[in-house]
Amino acid sequence: MKTAKSLMQALIFDVDGTLADTERDGHRPAFNAAFADAGLDWHWDEALYGELLAVTGGKERMRFYCERYAPDFLKQPDADERIKALHAAKTTHYVRIVESGALPLRPGVARLIADARQAGLRLAIATTTTPENVEVLLRASLAPDAMSWFEVIGAGDAAAKKKKPAPDVYLWVLERLGLPASACLALEDSENGILSSRAAGIPTLVTESEYTRGQDFGGALAVLPDLANTTLADVFEIFDKSLSSA
User: Are 22 and 194 in contact (CB under 8 A)?
Assistant: First the structure.
């Protein structure tokens, strides 16, 4: 039988919560800054933001918030355009925060990516965040040319009609990689993320993040606190065990 190393051909990374803990100190304050700029009295504290993370996608998250806490906002004829403008402003603030160096990669992530590249594994990204957010995080935390390390980057609205937990973004990435799901390993941090990756048929390794601890990760090959003590050899072993138990 072939080894796991010969069968696992690609790693597909989620971004927010998986590559870096971006939510609490990155996206959340960026949203709040955009709201303040627009003269809105909305403020998302840490507890409320944890609740809102049940919805993936920034524009979708704002609409969800309005439905629960600010329904009059949605009654405006230009509500959709205002949400789009708020999201664009939020992205500008987020880029500034990331460029300041405030959001480092999670433990072990940079090493795993470097080792995977050296081993000849293909790399991809599957995320609901915008391409701009992906680029600034990779550039600031890995290297100026880090975007080129990833063969396929599935990000934002362009990559999926339906966002996680739907499998759309993973199916989009698999199609462009030209690989079967069984040849890839997804790395996720949330229940919505693993629902998405597993619906696409991709074996998945979970590293819990600050907002996702205790969520349901049924179907994960393994659930780890982070990758600090996990080598590429360990990842191959985890993948191999999934094949032998299938």
Answer: no
Give the other-Cβ count within 10 Å of 121's Cβ.
20
pLDDT, tens digit, 9 for 90 and up, residues 203-229:
999 999 989 999 999 999 999 999 999
Question: What is the spatial distance between Cα 2 and Cα 73, in angstroms, rounded to a whole number?
Answer: 57
Burial zone of 126 (CB within 10 Å; 0-12 exposed, 13-18 middle, 19+ buried): buried
Which helix (H) or strand (E) element contains residue 10? Answer: strand 10-13
Q: What's the full length of the chain, in residues?
A: 246
Q: Which residue of the set 14, 21, 168, 189 is catalytic?
A: 14
Question: Which residues is 223 bridged to in the sheet?
Answer: 206
pTM, two decimal places: 0.91
Tokens 């191959």 locate to 236
Average pLDDT over residues 115-143: 96
Is 16 one of the annotated active-site residues of the chain? yes
Catalytic residue among 16, 21, 168, 189: 16
**Whether pLDDT at 5 is above 50:** no
Cis bond upstream, residue 225 (ω within 30): no
In the chain the domains, ranked by start, together with CATH numbers, are 4-22+104-245 (3.40.50.1000), 24-99 (1.10.150.240)
